[in-house]
Each structure stands twice: as C-alpha cells, then as structure tokens.
Amino acid sequence: MNGNNNIKVLPRAFYARPTILVSLDLLGKILFHNTPKGIIAGKIVETEAYLGEIDPACHAFFGKTQRTKIFWGNPGIAYIVINYGIYYCLNAITEEPNIAGCVLVRALEPTRGISVMQENRGIEGLLSLTNGPGKLTQALGITVEQNGFDLTQGELLIHDNCDYSNIVVTSRIGISKAKNEPLRFYINDNQFVSRQNKVIKCFEGTLEIVKEAFYDGIIKVFLKRNNLPL
C-alpha cells in the first residue's frame, strides 16, 4: 500500500490538533484495513467529536483508567470500544499528548473490497453496509484486537483524500449525556450517512465556514436564536 506514490497516509501531526478540527478534516479521508482477505477501504463520510475531560459523553471524562489511559498518549492511535457489549467502534485519538480527545468514525462510503465487506456483514445491500460505527467495523474486520494500533503505519491506516462540498453539523447520536452538543459532522447529501432521526440539525456550510462557526461562536448563537438546547 505504501509503495503507491499517489497514496499519502495522514501523519501524526494531523491528529495532534483540536479534536473538532480533526473530526471535520477526517471527512472525505479514506480508511484502509489490510486484512487476510485483502485490502478493504471506505471514504469517511460521518464523524463525531468527543472532547476528553470536559465532555461527559467521553470515556476520558472520569480520568485515567486501564482502559482510558490511551487518551493521554500519542495522537493518531486507534481506540476501539465495544458498544452495548456487541458492536466495535473505531475512534482516533486526537490532541497533543497529555490532552484527551478522540473522533468516532461513524460511517463510510465503501470504495474497495466491497465483496469482502458483504461477506463480513452477511448482507448484500450497499447502502446499509457501512452506515454506522458498528456496521463499518464489522465490514472492515476491525475488532478490539486493533485497539492501540497506530493509524499512521501498519495494517490500519487513514489516507489523505477530499472530494466533497458542504458539511452538515448536528447533535450526536446514540448517547445519553451531552447528546445535544453540535459535535456530529457528515458530508451533505451522502447516501451512506447513518440514520437521521432524533438529531438536531444545527448548521451547514463549507469546511471553512463550519470551522469558522465553531471558533467564532456562530454555532452557539444559532442554537440560542432557535431556542435549541446546547
């Protein structure tokens, strides 16, 4: 894979930045897994940001444990968690060392090894193959065995890529704490994004506009103006 001069693996410096920026910039990138069945890949079309010790929905919120100490290590490391005791979820550790944060990869658009994904999932329907965090890990053969893998080298990688226009910002999905925070991002009009029910749509715009919205406070002003909870 690395022998292809057209492929650029995201470096550690990409992840060593504020979690929201990484979450936005991961959209459009390509997640690769080199497996015994072959290379499987998909374009990241949906992400969710978790802001470490200030975020009640983040596993790092209650401090360092045997499971969560990975948050305070190097960025660009895979953090795999089991949701509901069944589904594996892939996160990328973000921020500088000793600052906790991660991005959940929520959905992919399949691009390579689709027949293997279908075999792994036991289904044929393309649109429902990777449109959720548990679905995509099953499709790509990602389990807790990949917890701690370095996303900048080895068999599980994220490659640079960008081919979309607008980004939509919504509240988060499938959590009970801080669920209304505008920290879920997806590529507008992409048919591989996960379910849209029970979310608050907060904002839409180009990558540059959305970044400015967060750092200039537009997101919170928008929510307050529309009487929506933060």
The secondary-structure class comes to alpha+beta
Continuous helix count: 6
- CATH-derived topology of one domain: 3-methyladenine DNA Glycosylase, Chain A
Name of the CATH first level of one domain: Alpha Beta
Largest β sheet strand count, sense and barrel closure:
9 strands, antiparallel
Regions with little confidence, pLDDT below 50 for 5+ residues: none
Helix content: 10-25%
What is the overall shape?
globular
Provide a brief overview of the structure:
With 230 residues, this protein is of the alpha+beta class. Helices cover 20% and strands 27% of the residues. It has a domain at 12-164: Methylpurine-DNA glycosylase (MPG) (3-methyladenine DNA Glycosylase, Chain A, Roll).
How would you describe the overall organization of this protein?
The protein is an alpha+beta fold and 230 residues long. The protein has a domain of 153 residues: 3-methyladenine DNA Glycosylase, Chain A (Roll). Helix content is 20%, strand content 27%. The chain has 6 helices and 9 strands. Strands 1, 2, 3, 4, 5, 6, 7, 8 and 9 form a 9-stranded antiparallel sheet that branches. The mean pLDDT is 90.
